[in-house]
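Work Package 4 report. The design task specified in the project plan requires that, given a folded chain encoded as C-alpha cells, an amino acid be chosen for each position. We show below one input record used in the internal validation round.
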C-alpha cells in the first residue's frame, strides 16, 4: 500500500547533513513495513535488527560506543558487510535498548556515512526518559495511520485522488464527485487507517473481518498497558482509554477527569494520561486563551480535549455499529460530530500542522481547532452535516480578525477567500486552499 511518508524518507536520504532518523508512531500504524519498503527501494541492502526478537543484539551495545566495532558485530549478525551509504541500518523496537538509542550520537558524530533509521511501538515513552537519547544528534519523524487519501489509493480510487489533488478553489464541485467522495469517507470512518484493517477491507470487503482486526489492535494496546506501563497506572490507563469515546460524544467535549471514574482526580490520572499521549494512542488538544505566535505559549495544559489515534478504532471502541454510519442512521447523529472532529484533527496533523489547539469564549463560543500553518494562525470549524451556520467562527473573527479561516463541512463547496469553505473529504488538501 502506498504511503506518502516514503517521499519524506527519500528526502532524508539525500540530505548532506543527514543524522540518524527516529520514527515515532502508534503501534501497528505501518512503521516497520514502510521502513523495509524504503530500504528495498532506495538502498542496495537492508540490515534489519529487531531488539524484541534478539537478546544477543543488545549485547552489541553493552561494551562501548565504538561505531567501527558495532558495525563489525552488526555485519556478523546480518550475514554480510554493512557498507556506508548503500546499506540501510534499521533498529526496530529500539526503545528496548537504551544504549542503542545513546549510540545514535556516535553514529551521527563519527560515522554519518551509515544511514540509520530507528522505530518502536512505544518509542515515544522511552524518549521521555532522561538521558535516553542524544539531543541534537538525531532527527525525528512522526508516522500516523493511513490518511484518507492513502485509504483511497489502497482501494484503487486513483481517479478520485487525482481530483482531490487538482480541484481548484472556486470551481463547482460535481455531484458525482461529491457523492463518491462522501461514500468513501463513510467507509473510511468505518475502517479507519490502520494498515491491517485497510488491507482486510480491500481484500474481503467484509466489515466483520475488519472489526476483528480492529479488536485485535485494541486488545494489543491494552496488553501494552499491562506489559510496559507502571503497575499502578494500568487501571488508570485502561479507564482513560475507554472513556475517550464517551467524552467526545458530549456536547462540551472538554475532557473531565472525574468522568473517567467517580472519585478520581487529575493528580491521580496525569501520569497515565501522559503515557497514552507519548505512546501516540491519544492526541491532546489544549485550549488557548488567545491566538498568538507560537500557539503553545498561549495554551492551558489543564483544559483540553482528547481524540483517538484512528477513527476506525474510535468507532470500534465506542461500540458504534457500522450500519449507523453506512446508512446515516438517526442513532448516529449524536456521535457524528465526534467522528468528524477526530477525522479532521488527524488529517490536519498528517498534512497541515504539527499540533492543534481549540479556543472558547466563556460558554458562548468554541472553535474546534486552531492551527498554525506557515505564517498563518487559522481557526477551523468542523460541521459534520450540511448545517454550516458558524456562529462561533463569527465571534472569533470579530475578536481577532484572522487573515484566513477554515470551515469544513459536508457541503460540496470549494470557495471563499477570508473564510475558506471545503468539504470534509478535502481536509487533507487544506494547505493548498489556505495558501493559494
Amino acid at each position: 500500500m502506498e504511503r506518502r511518508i516514503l517521499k519524506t524518507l527519500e528526502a532524508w536520504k539525500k540530505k548532506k547533513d543527514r543524522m540518524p532518523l527516529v520514527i515515532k508512531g502508534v503501534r501497528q500504524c505501518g512503521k516497520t513495513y514502510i521502513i523495509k519498503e524504503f530500504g528495498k527501494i532506495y538502498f542496495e541492502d537492508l540490515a534489519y535488527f529487531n531488539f524484541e526478537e534478539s537478546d544477543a543484539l543488545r549485547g552489541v551495545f553493552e561494551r562501548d560506543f565504538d561505531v567501527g566495532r558495532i558495525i563489525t558485530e552488526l555485519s556478523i549478525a546480518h550475514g554480510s558487510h554493512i557498507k556506508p551509504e548503500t546499506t540501510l541500518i534499521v533498529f526496530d523496537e529500539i526503545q528496548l535498548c537504551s544504549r542503542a538509542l545513546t549510540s545514535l550520537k556516535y553514529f551521527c558524530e563519527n560515522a554519518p556515512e551509515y544511514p540509520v533509521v530507528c522505530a518502536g511501538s512505544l518509542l515515544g515513552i522511552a524518549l521521555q526518559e532522561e538521558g535516553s537519547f542524544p539531543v541534537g544528534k538525531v532527527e525525528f519523524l512522526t508516522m500516523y495511520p493511513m490518511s484518507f487519501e492513502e485509504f483511497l489509493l489502497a482501494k484503487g480510487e486513483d481517479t478520485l485522488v487525482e481530483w482531490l489533488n487538482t480541484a481548484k478553489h472556486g470551481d463547482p464541485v460535481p455531484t458525482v464527485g461529491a457523492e463518491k467522495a462522501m461514500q468513501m469517507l463513510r467507509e473510511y470512518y468505518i475502517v479507519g487507517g490502520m494498515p491491517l484493517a485497510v488491507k482486510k477491507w480491500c481484500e474481503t470487503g467484509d466489515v466483520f473481518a475488519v472489526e476483528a482486526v480492529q479488536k485485535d489492535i485494541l486488545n494489543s494496546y491494552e496488553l501494552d498497558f499491562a506489559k510496559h506501563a507502571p503497575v499502578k497506572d494500568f487501571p488508570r490507563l485502561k479507564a482513560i482509554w475507554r472513556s475517550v469515546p464517551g467524552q467526545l460524544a458530549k456536547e462540551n467535549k472538554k475532557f473531565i477527569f472525574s468522568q473517567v471514574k467517580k472519585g478520581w482526580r487529575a493528580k491521580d490520572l496525569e501520569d497515565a494520561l501522559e503515557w497514552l499521549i507519548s505512546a501516540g494512542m491519544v492526541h491532546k488538544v489544549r485550549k488557548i486563551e488567545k491566538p498568538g505566535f507560537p500557539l503553545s505559549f498561549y495554551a492551558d495544559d489543564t483544559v483540553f480535549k482528547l481524540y483517538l489515534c484512528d477513527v476506525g478504532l474510535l468507532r470500534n471502541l465506542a461500540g458504534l455499529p457500522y450500519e449507523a454510519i453506512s446508512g446515516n442512521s438517526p442513532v448516529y447523529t449524536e456521535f457524528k460530530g465526534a467522528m468528524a472532529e477526530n477525522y479532521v484533527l488527524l488529517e490536519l496533523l498528517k498534512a497541515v500542522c504539527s499540533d492543534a489547539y481549540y479556543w472558547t469564549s466563556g460558554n458562548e463560543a468554541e472553535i474546534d481547532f486552531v492551527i498554525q500553518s506557515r505564517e498563518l494562525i487559522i481557526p477551523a470549524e468542523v460541521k459534520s452535516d450540511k448545517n454550516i451556520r458558524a456562529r462561533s467562527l463569527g465571534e472569533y473573527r470579530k475578536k481577532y480578525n484572522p487573515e484566513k479561516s477554515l470551515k469544513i463541512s459536508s457541503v460540496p463547496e470549494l470557495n471563499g477567500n477570508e473564510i475558506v469553505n471545503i468539504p470534509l473529504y478535502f481536509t487533507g488538501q487544506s494547505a493548498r486552499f489556505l495558501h493559494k
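The radius of gyration is 22 Å. Validation will be extended to a larger panel in the next phase.
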